[in-house]
């Protein structure tokens, strides 16, 4: 029996991740194909076999391990993880993520190893399925690579094949946030660091961290209005139409809002209501409104007054009365509308149809009555909605005036003419009496005639003057 030895060289594949487990190799021997020169047809050819004896092995296994630089008996690593969440394009101190305004965000990760060399070190990220992984960024090449294993799971290999003791790695992973729906109140990231080494239980507390940011709908709402004066109606009513427009500049979708509209409804506390709300309509029927209807819309205040009081009130109408719901004590009619979601750069109209009882205005002593109506759009903080700072105003006002046309009733006109004639005659008689008292009608006409004759004689006489030589 002859013994023969052969030396073979084996190469480890690149990017081997498991450097903790030993490399197992096995050697076995067997007979090769036996070649027979001539084949017998009657009987099959005989083939040689190996003679196996007890205690002998046909195969032999052995193993080797990767060389590791371990200072402890258990070769324990001590990973420490730190991180920070940054939003692109906004202030670093922004306490929330505005849906639609922030296009992407980055997680700045710092991982350090204070123990023995850490083999097969990985940092994994559990993220929302609504996020899209864009890229991994490192300031300089440090042997970090990332792979998206699932839509919500990202795994990054750090310092392959091992992360040396007392080293620190920093990198950032960037995600696209443009597809966030906002259904969740908070966007959360679970970041975990682990290696193939064992790690003592008292040092595992800093191997994971949770980074969160609140999700809010950041909007810039505004409200505008217009006023339409329609044709006169029956029952001494003046039809009016007010249109409010709510607009969302964005950048986020406004999930819901409410609009309050206040109209001065009485000349003073205790007076009769002036307005009758006919209908309030929200554009595209994407909202609903509520208001209190006037139970007695056609009531006209009846006052006991004589003709002289009526004439006096007609001539003494002056000044301006301002009815403003912002002033304390002004009775106002309130209308509230709840609107559904309003997308970025979308508007919604609210049409208000109402009637004004003009007979009530005629009873007031002012020549001009100014109505200051106000509207305000509100967002619900419970829906995680915030207004853009220094954005468009959320309030507007509509100002319209009722002018007294100075047209008295027919019977008042007759009385005015009669009283004017009577006053004119009385003034004429008074002047005549005053002139008579002053002697205008008792002058001496004889003295006047003689004085006039004497004046003419004096004009016909000559004056002689001596001329010196």
Automatic annotation (TrEMBL):
Membrane protein topology class: Single-pass type I membrane protein
Main localization of the protein described in the UniProt heading: membrane
Every Integrin alpha first immunoglubulin-like domain range: 2-67
Localization: Membrane
InterPro entries linked: Integrin_alpha, Integrin_alpha_C_CS, Integrin_alpha_Ig-like_1, Integrin_alpha_Ig-like_2, Integrin_alpha_Ig-like_3, Integrin_dom_sf
Domain Integrin alpha third immunoglobulin-like per the UniProt entry, residue ranges: 231-401
GO molecular function: integrin binding
Name of the protein described by the UniProt record: Integrin subunit alpha 9
Organism classification: Eukaryota, Metazoa, Chordata, Craniata, Vertebrata
């Amino acid at each position: 029996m002859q013994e023969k030895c052969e030396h073979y060289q084996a190469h480890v594949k690149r990017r081997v991740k498991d450097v903790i487990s030993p490399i197992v190799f096995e050697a076995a021997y067997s007979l090769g194909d036996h070649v027979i020169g001539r084949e017998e047809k009657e009987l099959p050819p005989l083939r040689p076999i190996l003679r196996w004896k007890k205690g002998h092995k046909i195969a032999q296994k052995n193993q080797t391990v990767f060389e590791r630089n371990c200072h402890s008996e258990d070769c324990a690593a001590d990973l420490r993880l730190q991180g920070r969440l940054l939003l692109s394009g906004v202030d670093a101190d922004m306490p929330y993520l505005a849906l639609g305004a922030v296009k992407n965000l980055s997680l700045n990760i710092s991982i350090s190893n204070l123990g023995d060399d850490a083999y097969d070190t990985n940092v994994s990220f559990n993220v929302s399925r609504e996020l899209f992984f864009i890229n991994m960024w490192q300031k300089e090449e440090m042997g970090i690579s990332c792979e998206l294993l699932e839509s919500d799971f990202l795994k990054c290999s750090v310092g392959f094949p091992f992360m040396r003791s007392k080293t620190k790695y920093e990198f950032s992973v960037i995600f696209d946030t443009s597809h966030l729906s906002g259904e969740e109140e908070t966007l959360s990231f679970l970041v975990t660091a682990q290696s193939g080494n064992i790690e003592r239980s008292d040092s595992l507390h800093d191997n994971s961290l949770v980074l969160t940011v609140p999700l809010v709908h950041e909007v810039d709402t505004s409200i505008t209005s217009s006023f339409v004066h329609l044709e006169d109606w029956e029952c001494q009513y003046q039809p009016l139409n007010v249109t409010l427009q709510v607009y969302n500049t964005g950048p986020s979708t406004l999930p819901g809002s409410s609009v309050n509209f206040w109209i001065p409804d009485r000349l003073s506390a205790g007076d009769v209501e002036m307005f009758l709300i006919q209908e309030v309509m929200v554009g595209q029927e994407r909202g609903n409104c509520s208001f209190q209807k006037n139970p007695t819309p056609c009531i006209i205040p009846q006052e006991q007054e004589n003709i002289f009081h009526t004439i006096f009130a007609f001539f003494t109408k002056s000044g301006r009365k301002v009815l403003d719901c912002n002033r304390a004590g002004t009775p106002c009619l309130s209308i509230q509308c709840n609107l559904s979601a309003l997308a970025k750069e979308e508007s919604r109209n609210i049409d208000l149809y109402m009637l004004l009882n003009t007979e009530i205005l005629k009873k007031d002593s002012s020549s001009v009555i100014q109505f200051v109506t106000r509207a305000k759009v509100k967002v619900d903080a419970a829906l995680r909605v915030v207004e853009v700072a220094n954005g468009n105003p959320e309030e507007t006002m509509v100002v319209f005036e009722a002018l007294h046309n100075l047209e008295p009733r027919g019977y008042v006109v007759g009385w005015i003419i009669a009283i004017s004639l009577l006053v004119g005659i009385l003034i004429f008689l008074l002047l005549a009496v005053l002139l008579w008292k002053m002697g205008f009608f008792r002058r001496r006409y004889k003295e006047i005639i003689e004085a006039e004759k004497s004046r003419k004689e004096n004009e016909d006489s000559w004056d002689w003057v001596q001329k010196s030589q």
